[in-house]
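Data card: per-record layout.
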Amino acid sequence: MTSVKEFRVAEPATSSSLGRGAFVFTDDYSVFDWGPMPDEIPGKGTALCAMGAANFELLEAADVPTHYRGVVVDGEPVPLAEVEEPPREMAIGLTQVPDLPHEGRTYDYDAFHAAAGDNYLVPLEVVFRNTVPVGSSLRTRGRPADYGLDADEWPDEPVDLPEPVVEFSTKFEESDRYLSRAEADRIAGAADIAALDALAREVNDLITERAARTGLVHEDGKIECCYVNGDLLVADVVGTFDENRFSYDGQQLSKEVLRQYHKREQPEWVAAVADAKERAKREDVADWRTLCETAPAPLPDAVLTTVGDMYAAGAETYLDQSLFDAPSLPEAVAAVRDL
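The structure for this 339-residue chain is written out next.
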């Protein structure tokens, strides 16, 4: 099970071929890499499933290969257009995910690839950025001039990038970290790093164009990929309000709303998470959560309802399809602004 979706296996992958399985999208959420938080966001799982399916179908229509097989209705995968109720389960092709041995924070990628063969989930997240919002980690890892901006300091508002930026971070390490291109190339194994970069840019362009047609701004996101006998397939889920950041009329429309709420309302817990991550680095501890002595508190019901409406209204707008009992997007955004 991943942090916010369950994982089902119908037929395991082999060293040379994909298996069959499914994601079941729950209403759980996770921020700051904590894992499932104390609450559920009503309707979040079905909103993410529908939005992810729509994006996979968008990619397939543009001849971008993916592991998507359809949303599940009565046990069978079907196109999103055929559903009458919000879907919660997505059928996918399965690749191999070998164990990644480690000692402390030192990970043995040679062992991972020895077990992976030519059919594996690339142990990277490929991140693309169109803007640099306030709070983006990019601000701590570079100066504006490094990304083509004519400024000495980062401003106190979001910044549009002249060209999208693609970065690589680890996928299976307990504390994800950004990588140099050379280190990402080594970790990717047989998968070509330039091809991963190009694929991420193509996905980014398609999602950005789709968002713009519906009045949304696509700020950033990521892809994960399968490497199967020399080919790359877009995997996991793409273009949802959890994997990507969108905005509408200047208001964040993504999981970032929850991150900022916790920073504002539970600063002690957020600080404890940051301290635990830093301590884990100093002490060479892989799982920083074992060092965090503070747990997050549940959210008020009104906040859960408001965020649930945001997910549903945003998904309906992006899909241009009425699947949810959601308020209009302007109404949902106005409520989010009042949080």
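Known properties of this structure: The radius of gyration is 20 Å. The chain is about 35% helix and 25% strand.

See the next section for split statistics.
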